[in-house]
Description:
Layout: H1 2-48, E1 67-79, E2 90-110, E3 113-136, E4 139-164, E5 171-190, E6 198-220, E7 223-230, E8 232-243, E9 246-257, E10 261-272
Antiparallel strand pairs: 1-2, 1-10, 2-3, 3-4, 4-5, 5-6, 6-7, 6-8, 7-10, 8-9
Amino acid sequence: MKRFIYSISIALSAILFISITPCASAAQQDSLSIENTVVMLSDTTTSLGRKFDRGLTNYRFIPQGEWICGLAVSYTGYNSSDSDILLLIKDFDFTGSLFGIHPYVGYFISNNNCIGLRLGYSATSADLGGFDLNILDDMNLSLSDLSYNLKKFSAGIFHRAYIGLTKSGQIGVFNETSLTFESGTSHFIRGNEESGIKDTKTVSNEIVLGLNPGISVFVLKNISANVSVGILGLSYKQSKQYIDNQEIGVYKTGGANFKINILNINIGITVHI
């Protein structure tokens, strides 16, 4: 009897040992799985915080201590006789032009960084000799003897930061930030000498903060060609208006322009000293 009870005790002990061993193994596997997961998350965090070298190098394009002087000129002209589409409009006679000239001088306070002074003059003219549009039999639009002229002077300071694209220093891009004061006078004239002339004059003063990226290429050892375009402008403007030399009002405007300005494309030549 004692031998039988002893045998049963041994059997129960064996069963308990077998049942407990897999549980311990599963717990160890879960622990290993959790540890592996922590390691993977740690590796992912390390990779996200790693700094990548994108291979962009800012070569020295213009050295410190160099002077530059240059001239930027822009011109756009239009004539209704050169357009095939507007030939569909009867008696359309229009001419217009935009002209600007901006001399400047600058000094490089460090490699690829320049500060300078720019002056400017611009002129805009538009003349409408005649315009006759017939949409329906009872809807006609006719205009004639209209002209608009604007002359503007400016002075400002600028900072230009270059990025050299090649080791040879022949090609570079730049970003120019400028603060400019502008003063101009415009005339809007209606009529002719026979019917009488009515002149509306506007005198305006404006402060402009501009952003003008561009590209510069050395065509000779000390001469580079530059092209820039305005993409941002913050401005504040005050204007006084006169009709036949009598003041009729004053208005103030301010705003921001965050688009490419096709009327502010400048092509110029720079001399490096």
